[in-house]
Amino acid sequence: MKAFVTGGAGFIASHLEDVLIKAGCKVCAADIIEPAKCHNIAHLKDNDRFTYRQLDVTDVNALTKATADYDIIYHLAANSDIQRGGQDPAMDYAMTFQTTRAVLEAVRTNRIPKIFFSSTSAVYGDIKGNLNELTGGLKPISYYGAAKLSSEAMISAYSYMNDFDALIFRFPNVIGPRLTHGVIFDFLHKLKHSPKKLEILGNGKQNKQYVYVTDLVQGIWEFSQKKEPGLNLYNVSTESYTDVDTIADLVCERLGLKDVEYSYTGGNCGWKGDVPSFGYDIAKAKAAGWKFKYNSTEAVRETLRQVDVAYISSL
Ligand SMILES: NC(=O)c1ccc[n+]([C@@H]2O[C@H](COP(=O)([O-])OP(=O)(O)OC[C@H]3O[C@@H](n4cnc5c(N)ncnc54)[C@H](O)[C@@H]3O)[C@@H](O)[C@H]2O)c1
């Protein structure tokens, strides 16, 4: 199988590419990042089943040329930093929505039979309860969530109009080695530079589900091999939660720091657009074969065991 991965130099894509190559696929990773700065995929550069293309995925013509004879596009390019997108709505519009629109045009022109799309729990907004795929009244509260939800809508229409299959996973928080952002990254970065104090955004009680990246990418690979016609959408996650204070304690433990003084910016969310807590009902995904090795807090611990702290603090 020939697989094309957008956002291919990113955190999750780099792990997906590891799985695809191990499974025997030929993989092309496309990302806007210049090759010398693609640290997450440096280990793949000499693999003869792997190629890298520096490409702006919003460029419909360039993307259409690049994807001409691929069997599947795994579309992971996006602005993954929700907080930064909150300062500049154009980021989510271009990097998340317009990349999707370009991918869909390339799929339509090249008659590619399948795409995978990395969506997010942020499409729901601040809705309480166990969210499943049929939960309605979706009201994203971040530009990021809005760009993902509108991308899902475009995928639905393009898939129907052009008879290709589309698989959408709505990820929760994804963590693991090579992470590029998020609460663990933020705490490691802050504590390496100032080991006695830690500023925590919000009140520390934000409580979310975390999934370990290798569990996620294994699921993406297995589900994308199934013959499921049309559009198929799954909430994938662990079934447990971890709050931000617990993550702060585990990061301090990992760095061997004691008596760190925590300060809180206050309020129940980290920043405007942050959903303070959410929970998924993953019955549909489990019935279809979704499995995970690490529960939420185990995923945090394993990430802290595996992550390259020196690299993060050098950024
Ligand atoms: N990490 C999470 O917790 C999480 C949760 C839900 C959904 N997701 C989604 O999963 C996907 C991967 O996320 P990640 O955490 O690996 O983020 P990441 O930032 O590490 O990877 C995203 C990649 O997309 C690339 N990109 C952005 N705009 C581009 C463009 N115009 N052309 C080419 N490349 C472009 C970036 O350079 C980056 O390498 C994203 O779509 C993200 O929204 C991630």
Task: Name the descriptors.
two-stranded parallel sheet; 315 residues; UDP-galactose 4-epimerase, domain 1; alpha/beta; binds nicotinamide-adenine-dinucleotide; Rossmann fold
**Termini separation:** 36 Å
Rounded to an integer in angstroms, the radius of gyration calculated over CA atoms is 19 Å
Kindly state the number of beta strands.
15
- Helicity range: 25-40%
> If you consult CATH, what is the topology of the largest domain?
Rossmann fold
Number of structural units classed as domains: 2
Could you say which small molecules are bound to this protein?
nicotinamide-adenine-dinucleotide
The secondary-structure element order is EHEEHEHHEEHEEHEEEHEEHEEHHH
- Spatial arrangement of strands, main beta sheet: 3-2-1-4-5-7-12
The number of helices is: 11
Q: Any guess at the CATH architecture of the largest domain?
A: 3-Layer(aba) Sandwich
* Biggest pleated sheet: 7 strands, parallel
Query: Which CATH class of the largest domain?
Result: Alpha Beta
User: Which consecutive residue ranges, at least 5 long each, have pLDDT under 50?
Assistant: none
CATH homologous superfamily of the largest domain? NAD(P)-binding Rossmann-like Domain
Shape: globular
% residues in beta strands: 15-25%
